[in-house]
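Thread: quick sanity check before group meeting

JM: Hey all, I'm pulling together slides for Thursday and realized we never actually wrote out the predicted structure for the chain we discussed last week. Dropping the sequence here so it's in one place. If anyone has concerns about the input, flag it before I start.
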Amino acid sequence: MKQYKAAIVGYGGMGRWHVQGIHKTDRVVFKGTYDLNPERMKLAVEDGLSVCYDSYEALLADKEIDIVVEGLIGVIAYA
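JM (edit): ok, ran it. Output follows.
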């Protein structure tokens, strides 16, 4: 069975919730995150995500990523 690599945009409360839920499957592993807030990226590393991308574009350019999870609140996601 293939294991997919994921990255998440936004590592606030909703982003962390998504990561915790998806960790319950062995089919997806999180590689990294991008967040505007450097403190949240430090938290992501503490939580086991190995890469903090410099930008959203850098995350999207990573050829190893199969899935991008959007963990932003609705107001931001639709802006």
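AS: nice. The CA atoms of residues 28 and 46 lie 19 Å apart. The two ends are 37 Å apart (CA to CA).
JM: adding both to the slides.
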